[in-house]
Amino acid sequence: MTDPHFRADATDPIEPDGPVVVAVDGPAGSGKSSVSKAAARRLGWAYLDSGAAYRALGWYVVQRRLDPTDSATVIDSLPDFDYRIGTDPDTYHVFVGDHDVTGAIRQPEVTAVVSAIARVPEVRSFLTGLFRSIVARTQKPGIVVEGRDITTVVCPDAHVRILLTADEAVRIARRSAELADHSAAHVGEALRRRDAADSRVVDFMNAADGVTTVDSTDLDFDQTVDAVIAVVQKETHV
Ligand code: CDP
Predict the structure, then answer these.
(1) Which class for 86: exposed (0-12), middle (13-18), buried (19 or more C-beta within 10 A)?
(2) Is the pLDDT of residue 3 over 60?
(3) Which of 38, 128, 155, 213 is the most exposed place for a label (fewest CB within 10 A)?
């Protein structure tokens, strides 16, 4: 871990003079990564993909041939997990040590192990502390942070809290289009299995109190970005 300011027990980073924080949660294939990144770009704000950190740790575990289901081994690997992520939506890159893993963390071998890692409480508090320190140090006027538990655990006091959903069939179709060399049936099965495993840890299918739901089932990409920006504008007057 390279961040000397990292504090796993850091509290919610929302400061009166700090950046406007937009928290976006949602299930796999809801479009939250691409939509959040595009919304941040349009607003001229920073962007933080929290799932990329869980994926990067998954990549690291696969790379070191560790057993992802052995929590103690995964926890032991955390001090050596040297992870860096950009928050500029235009130059977004994810590194582990010297490796640029931006593409590799999306591979199905990594996706297959990430839920096992994400259910370990020590992993969650470690990464939650990291996310909060990144948010607190944002230099731009605002930051869009997306994941599964941003509206509820990482930044429950965010100025804007959104749950981005879409019907399961639509989410599977979108993910299949991204992974063109894999069969739709296989992608669908993997996505269903991951959502089921992830929802045992955090609830990202139902909006918590005060969270605005944006359903992208019948919206195309640009319309979904518009819908997210409309919520941000309504709630922050930017
Ligand atoms: O893009 P997609 O929705 O497929 O997944 P992601 O956002 O890249 O997240 C990958 C995995 O990380 C999820 O399946 C969860 O297991 C985990 N995750 C989490 O537990 N909490 C978060 N805030 C973000 C991701």
Answers:
(1) middle
(2) no
(3) 213
